[in-house]
Amino acid sequence: MDAAIACEARIGEELDRVAARDNLSKTSTKKALSSNDFTMQLTKGVEGLTGRRFEDEVPGALPLLQSLRVARGNVAHGGPLLVPGADGKAREPEPPEIYEMLHAALKALNWLGGL
């Protein structure tokens, strides 16, 4: 849960920094952060503000971050640690997958710091 929250917070911090650096309006930052889904902010929001594509620069991380977001939502609302399965049904993640989700979060945090 902490890794997902760190991503959420870092996106806002970095977009504020980019907006100040590039002299962008508060409206543009607000628009980039309009979704409650941090993966949407990371993709459409960041791309709209900076022109950089997370999926291109950090290949393979987005699906893991989407699973992390779902797991965070489940746990935050008192549910078990579940991620979407290939069949669309919720399932418990295997330990290697948990490591991969955390690693994807670290990659996202590092990437955001380089915007």
Task: Outline the secondary-structure elements.
Elements: H1 2-21, H2 26-32, H3 38-50, H4 54-57, H5 61-76, E1 83-84, E2 90-91, H6 95-113
Antiparallel strand pairs: 1-2
Task: Explain what you see.
With 115 residues, this protein is mostly helical. It has one domain. Helix content is 69%, strand content 3%. It has six helices and two strands, in the order H-H-H-H-H-E-E-H. The protein has helices at residues 2-21, 26-32, 38-50, 54-57, 61-76, 95-113; strands at 83-84, 90-91. It has a two-stranded antiparallel sheet with strand order 1-2. Strand 1 (83-84) and strand 2 form a beta hairpin. Helix 1 (2-21) packs parallel to helix 3 (38-50), helix 2 (26-32) packs antiparallel against helix 3 and helix 5 (61-76) crosses helix 6 (95-113). The two termini are 24 Å apart. The model has no long low-confidence stretch (mean pLDDT 94).
Give a quick rundown of the structure.
The protein is mainly α.
List the main descriptive attributes of the protein structure presented here.
115 residues; mainly alpha; two-stranded antiparallel sheet; 2 strands; 3% strand
- Uncertain segments are none
Q: Specify the number of helices.
A: 6
The domain tally reads 1
Order of helices and strands: HHHHHEEH
| CA distance, first residue to last residue | 24 Å
Main pleated-sheet profile: 2 strands, antiparallel
Number of strands: 2
Q: Shape from CA axes?
A: elongated
